[in-house]
Design goal:
Helix content is 76%, strand content 0%. By secondary structure, it is mainly alpha-helical. The chain has one domain. Helix 2 packs across helix 3.
Length: 98
């Protein structure tokens, strides 16, 4: 999947522009130089990484909320024990009967 993403990225059809302070530009330039990248490559890759983290964190929060609701629902309205659980309870009772 990563190869396909890179192929899509190589066909750059969209443009982003940003105005930044001289100090910000110098900092970005220094960071790009340290990584051996162009400023554009550094900014785009940094933005993609930040966007990916943001989306993943948001998705995790939604999953966590859904899991929390399912957990509380199971506590308030527990399902009836299935056959396997009933057999396990019988074995437990036999093993630990006084």
């Amino acid at each position: 999947m990563r190869v396909m993403e890179r192929e899509k990225e190589s066909r750059r059809e969209e443009r982003l522009e940003a105005r930044v302070s001289r100090a910000t530009k110098a900092l970005i330039q220094k960071a790009a130089d340290l990584q051996g990248r162009s400023v554009t490559d550094f900014v785009v890759n940094s933005a993609v990484e930040a966007a990916t983290r943001t989306v993943q964190a948001s998705e995790l929060m939604h999953l966590t909320q859904r899991d929390r609701i399912a957990f509380v629902e199971a506590l308030l309205n527990p399902p009836a024990p299935n056959v396997r659980l009933q057999k396990a309870a019988q074995r437990h009772a036999q093993m630990f009967a006084e």
